[in-house]
Amino acid sequence: MTTTVAKPSRVTWVRRNLFRTPLDGILTIVFGSLGLYVIFRGVLFVASGFVNGRWQIIDDNLKLLMVGLWPVQNLIRIGVSVAVLALWAGVIGGVIAGRQKRRGTSSIEGLTAMQRASDLTRRFGLVTATLLLLLSLTDTAGPWIMVLSAFVAGVIGRVIGGWIGVRFLPIWVSRLFTVVMVAVPIGVFLYLTSPWLPDPLPAARSSEPSAWPLAEWEGFMFNLTSAAAGIVLSFPIGLLLALGRRSKLRLLQGISIVYIEFVRGAPLYVLLLMANVSLEFFVPEALAPSRVVRAIVTFTLFTAAYIAEIVRGGLQSVPVGQEEAGKALGLTPTKQMRLIVLPQALRNVIPAQIGQFISLFKDTTLAGLALGILDLLAGATAITQQPDFRGQGLIIEALVFVGFLFWVGSFTMSRESQRLEKKLGVGTR
Amino acid sequence: MSDTSPSVFADATEGVGDSIIELDHVDKFFGSFQALSDINLRIGRQEVVVVIGPSGSGKSTMIRCINRLEEHDNGRIVVDGIELSADVKNIQEIRRETGMVFQQFNLFPHLTVLDNITLAPKQVRRMPKKEAEEWGMDLLTQVKIPEQAKKYPGQLSGGQQQRVAIARSLAMKPKVMLFDEPTSALDPEMIGEVLDTMKDLAKGGMTMIVVTHEMGFAREVADRVVFMADGQIVEVGTPQHFFESPDEDRTKLFLSQIL
């Protein structure tokens, strides 16, 4: 005999969940109407944006917003760099996927082509759509060529990486590989900033500046590169600070605590302003670094203090028995930390770490106001004062554009972090 | 178990043959609380000693002092001729000679079962990867779960996890194994498999100190039983002597409570 539980009708569901008591009823009505109003205005805002939005201002200034005053004849260097970085990222992604395949921990192994496609769409769909949107605003072929070649390079890199990843490499080969992988972004940076490297196309050699020093990096490129540099540099410093704070050496512990508490106690904006004006007290003018470098250093030192506290929380979350097991096996304190405690600690705090990095990415916009760098936000504000657009109240369109780009970046980071969490969670309870 | 069948020793704190572990007048304080007072014990090579006693009696603290997970305050602890002192080199050397199995297993959750076992041989003994993995598989076969090698600890049952933990300790080829309530965190139906593994180990001639509440194991496998209460060793004797005709009232009371 089978009994079936009758599915409650919609009316019953509404009564149970929304109008159980008089108070529930009032809350439902109040928040329901408030919610409907907000949704209505929101839809209206977006719809009017599509219908009435004057996006010409973005169209006209796209290059300025993206790369600032980077010389047009020299944009080819960015194109080449982006393609190389795409190849690089593809190789890394491929190697990781290959390793997982070899170890049997792959999350994409065994998916059908359709599932694989939907997985890829979920990961890269938003970024791709955004890129296409930006490309549709351009009127030269350069950006299209850049994105297409980057795409091709990325796919090639993924294939090469996958091929390397499933193979067992001798230790010296894998060390060499690591060195090359670290060297690539540094090489790209030097190529972008150093005039003594040759231009790829003869035509691009025609006029004066053959490279663009870091001090002049502006637009969204500044936000992206300074955030990336801040993330990469702040992590090791934060890690050392966290270990320092837990150290038994009182001096080291004291320095770490003072540093962390001092930096966390000051608003980032204040630190950026101080980096702008008070550095001259300590460094002769000729030696003082450029505004962009000051911004990156400030971001790094600021974020490091937060990372330190996040990592410390992670270290505390690892049960003391783990360290004891390491001790009992005769591992040295360094190896107990490096091989047992730290991997677990860092995995436990991935969401908090990525949250901090997302924060940093968005906070790079503070550098515009504090240091006078023409970053994406400063650029978007400035263009509303151009003769063509002045007095037309175009700030909303500009801000929506800026907000959208940052949202795409932050959301992608957030989702990749969830993916990473899930992947590293293999085998834990 | 030793080749010479154990008897009641003239001085019951003396082990069989030459001793591998010596504790002389060992005291241990946690703040003002004295966890161990005047512990004297010698453990012979290939001897199996079971330590029992009510909770809080200092059993775990005693064996944790032997590999310096706890630092003793007074007295002398010598393991295989090496005296435990503040010298880090001595501590490392003693830890290489002693394996420890914990109540909560303490397996490394981020490593596979095989990696858990091969980590220390590779890192501490500098064994090549391939050799370490073969050795690891041998050990997993010994504890009868070679098919679990590629899994993560979280995917195993409690009994399997504890057997992996035993294999992990054995991977360092220790001369002494310390067991700190190895079956206390297990579901009843899994206790047997872990005890069987420990019995195999005892038959193979391993020197073992086992803190446990498993009286059956003590009766069957132990060469000597040590009874502790309030941080002191109350009585030491063969299982037969201990369970059938204990001398001390404190021992009789404890046995009447648990048997």
What does this structure look like?
- Chain A has 429 residues and is mostly helical.
- Chain A folds into two domains: 235 residues, Orthogonal Bundle (MetI-like fold); 129 residues, no CATH class.
- In chain A, 74% of the residues lie in helices and 0% in strands.
- Chain A starts with 9 loop residues before the first helix and ends in a 5-residue tail after the last helix.
- The model of chain A has no long low-confidence stretch (mean pLDDT 87).
- With 259 residues, chain B is α/β, with parallel strands linked by helices.
- Chain B has a six-stranded mixed beta sheet with strand order 6-7-8-3-9-10, with helices on both faces. A four-stranded antiparallel beta sheet of chain B has the order 2-1-4-5, covered by helices on one side.
- In chain B, helix 3 packs parallel to helix 5, helix 4 packs across helix 5 and helix 5 packs parallel to helix 6.
- Chain B starts with 18 loop residues before the first strand and ends with a helix.
- The N terminus of chain B is likely disordered.
- Chains A and B meet through helix 12 and helix 13 of A and helix 2, strand 6 and helix 3 of B.
Q: Count every helix of chain B, treating DSSP H or I runs of 4 or more residues as helices.
A: 9
CATH class of the largest domain in chain A: Mainly Alpha
String of helices and strands of chain B: EEEHEEHEHHHEHEHEEHH
User: Ends of chain B: how far apart?
Assistant: 25 Å
Number of domains of chain A: 2
Supply the CATH superfamily name of the largest domain in chain A: MetI-like
How does CATH name the architecture of the largest domain in chain A? Orthogonal Bundle
Distance between the termini of chain A: 38 Å
Main sheet attributes: strand count, strand direction, barrel closure of chain A: none
CATH topology of the largest domain in chain A: MetI-like fold
What form of chain A results from the Cα inertia axes? globular
What is Rg of chain B? 18 Å
